[in-house]
Structures are given as structure tokens and as C-alpha cells.
Amino acid sequence: MIRSVVKGVGHGVPSKIMTNFDLEKIVDTNDEWITQRTGIKERRICAPEEAASDLSIWAAKEALAQAGLDPLDIDHLIVGTVSGDFCFPSTACIVQDAIGAKNAASYDLGAACAGFIYSLNIADGLIRSGMAKNILVIGVDTLSKFVDWTDRSTCVLFGDAAGAMVLTAEEGTDRGIMESVLMSDGSGGKHITLEFGGSRYPASEYKREDYSAHIYMNGAETYRFAVSALGDACCKVMEKAGITADDIALFVPHQANVRIIESAAKRIGLPEEKIFLNIAKYGNTSAGSIPLGLYEADRDGRLKKGDIVLTVGFGAGLVWGANLIRW
Ligand code: ACO
Prior knowledge:
This protein is α/β, with parallel strands linked by helices. The chain has 2 domains: 2-174, Thiolase/Chalcone synthase (Peroxisomal Thiolase, Chain A, domain 1); 177-326, Peroxisomal Thiolase, Chain A, domain 1. The protein has helices at 20-24, 31-38, 52-67, 91-99, 115-128, 152-155, 219-241, 258-268, 279-282, 289-299; strands at residues 2-12, 17-19, 42-44, 76-80, 105-109, 134-142, 160-171, 176-184, 192-193, 216-217, 250-253, 308-315, 319-326. Strands 1-7-6-4-5 form a 5-stranded mixed β-sheet, sandwiched between helices. The longest helix is centred in the C-terminal third of the chain and has 23 residues, at 219-241. It is globular. The structure holds acetyl coenzyme *A (ACO).
């Protein structure tokens, strides 16, 4: 049986750090509120000249170097993002050109904060079916470019980051992506939106005062959805793989809110020491969050060959899902 084995991981984050104390100077908020309600202490913010492809290229190069692969070996380059450089060309095509992955089919996948979970499942399907050998999967978002910096209920939450993973087809191993579950509920789409710039409100036809070019989020509804979606996806994927929480070495959830993560971990019966958290340093980096977490967990020695990792994500759409990976 062919398996999609993780060969390399990488990350790309802007150098500019914005702390909660910096935010206190621009909006009516304070470090104590943000820390208690979300777990966030600081986030990385792109410079005006930085965009999603820049972070992705850093992450891609690092993941390829760890995998020991030539960019020409990549068959598919998938970028999970909802804040790419442009409507088109895709961010994947920009990355493809920059790293010289001349043999890759390159495309973006839009599933908001679940963008990496979705992309990984697609990549796994291509590898298991024999349609691809090596796939570069990137999750990236630059939502700092789309928040309203006068809206304290959203601007404190988001940061910018990319993470990348190289998957390679291998036979005769039990390592690799074990199972995934993907779910969606479009009826909840109204709870998290960024409407401007698509075909409904094209930039060429609408004046600035006609629309909101910023992220809108119904925080309370999203919170309710997230708590049940995370637990639900984790239970489903473990059931599919025939394992229990005791088999999980590390839980790397989407880092949106520490309270959401802790309640999901409690529901599935995971002790604190198995939960990976870096939300304090980065905030919610949407599709960048899970691959950045996997990169840091690997770098810090929290993931050993053969360990089972559970990832889970949820976001605008609404979409949610989980992957189980044997590292
Ligand atoms: N600083 C200080 N006070 C604030 C701030 C702030 N930054 N933001 C809101 N408040 C105030 C509110 O005005 C309110 O005041 P009031 O009681 O006088 O009206 C009070 O704090 C409580 O506000 P709530 O919204 O009830 O706060 P809550 O505890 O629900 O936390 C939060 C809000 C953090 C946004 C939470 O609802 C949440 O995490 N939701 C989920 C977000 C999420 O996970 N998004 C992921 C998807 S994003 C994507 O896919 C792109």
C-alpha cells in the first residue's frame, strides 16, 4: 500500500512583532483582556511590501531542504490560503516560479483556517492513488492585511504566517497520513466573511464606502461552532483510524483561541502535556497555523519518528476537519 510520508517541514513568518501592548496604543484594548480571552500575547505582521507568497517561499525552501528533494521532483504544489497575493495568478504559481518547481501542477485551495487540513487530504489522495510521488503542501495566510485596525473584536486575534510540508510516496511503511476527515456547512458562512474583491463586489465597480473590505466575524457564534466542530472532527478521525486518545503523541490544533483548544482536548480526553500551543507568539494565522505548529513541534524535538499526531482545524465557510499523521 502506498503511503504519503512527511519528509520535510518549513516555516515562514514576518520579522515584525506586534505585542498586545502595541495594540493598546491603537485600539481600546488591553493585554489582560486579550491574554485571558484568547491566550495571545503577540503576533507577526507582514510589512507593506510582504505578501503570502513571500512567507510561502521561505517555508517551501526550508521544507524542501529538510526533505533533501530538488524542486524539479515536485509533482503538485498546493497552497491552502484565503489571502493570496492576487485573485490570479495563484499564490502557488508564484511560489512554483520562485523555487523552480517546473514540473509541478500548482494551485491554491481556499478553506480558510482549515486550508492546510483540506490540502493535506487532497495531497494524500493524489499520492495514494499513484497520481503523484512528491507533493509540496503549504498553508499560508496574511489576514493582518484584511483586518479593521479600529475593530478591537477582530484585530487583536490575527497574525501572518506560512508553514510547508513535503510528502513523498512510500510503500511498505506504516508512517504517513493515516486518515483525514473534512466537513463543511455553508449555511454558517455568514458568521465569518471577507466579501470585497470577489465577483459579488468587484473592486472595479464599487467605491470604498459601499462595502467593508475587512474581516467580519460573529465571535460568539464562531466560538460555539468551533468548540463542537473540533471535538467532532477529532472523534471522527480517531474512530476512522481505529485508535483512541491514548495513542496520540501530540495534538496540534488550529491556534485560534486557547479556551477553544482546551475544551476540545478535554472532550477527547487529551492531557495538557500532549497539547501543542504557540498561540501566545503568533495569534490566529489561519491556514498557516497548523503547519507552523508541526514545524515548531518537529524542530523542538516534540515529534519522533512513528509518533501519531492529531491535527484539527476550523474556519470560515464554515469548514472543519482533522488529519492523523504517523510522523
Ligand atoms: N479588548 C477589550 N475588550 C474587548 C475586546 C478587546 N480586544 N474585544 C471585545 N471586547 C469586549 C466586548 O466589547 C464585550 O464588552 P461588553 O460586555 O461591555 O459588551 C466584552 O469584551 C466581551 O466580548 P465577547 O465578544 O463576549 O468576548 P468573548 O469572551 O466571546 O471573546 C472572542 C471574544 C475572543 C472573539 C471569542 O468569541 C472567540 O475566540 N471566538 C472565536 C474566534 C475564532 O475562533 N475564529 C476562527 C475563525 S477565523 C477564520 O476562519 C478566518
